[in-house]
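REQUEST ID: PR-0412
SUBMITTED BY: lab tech R.K.
PRIORITY: routine
TASK: structure prediction, single protein chain
INPUT:
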Amino acid sequence: MAVVPVRKGSQRVKSKNTRPFGDTSLLELKLKVLKHVNAIDEIVVNTDCEASIVIARQHGVSYHRRDDYYASSLVTNDQHWKHIAETTDTDVLMMAQTTSPMVRAGTYQMALDVFMGGNGSIDSVNSVSVEKKFLWRDGAPLNYNIDETPKSQDLPDIVSLNFAITIIERDLMIARKNVVGFRPRFVTLDRIESLDVDEQIDFEFAEFLYNKLGFEWLIK
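STATUS: complete
OUTPUT:
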């Protein structure tokens, strides 16, 4: 089952999930792409937003009306993730974020195939981005020796969770209060698919890419 979490109260980009985005909206686009993923048997929009519920109904998918607290800025990520799992009736849960609008249907399918083909050797699949950057903390470099500064491509392979794709067993997500299992498998997304809409400039750039590449590119 695919869960699309949508919160009404976006602080940086007002109504970002339901406002116009190209010829669609971020939520509508995500639902349309997920419908092209063969391995998904059901899609649920988890939300406190009435406009999102209307969109879910228009596209014939289920929805769960989220409690106000779990849609507020007070809730922590671990509480949010546990609540999402507890309110989803499934064995395996895939979270698909509207704020990652450029993830292709084929990439979702690949991630699901990786999870299903793990035969118990992995307990979550999580999408990541490669961070070939010169990282510092507390006045000192974290991932390189400042006396022998390498080229950026020679920096160590450090990745960051981008949360575009999360696949995990529901019971483990509840027990761990997290989306990363004990034996995760990371799948790397490129710069286009890992694009995250957090601020207005991200929204505008994602919209530019969507208009340029088109819906057909997303469902390949």
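NOTES: DSSP finds seven helices and nine strands in the chain.
REVIEWED BY: pending
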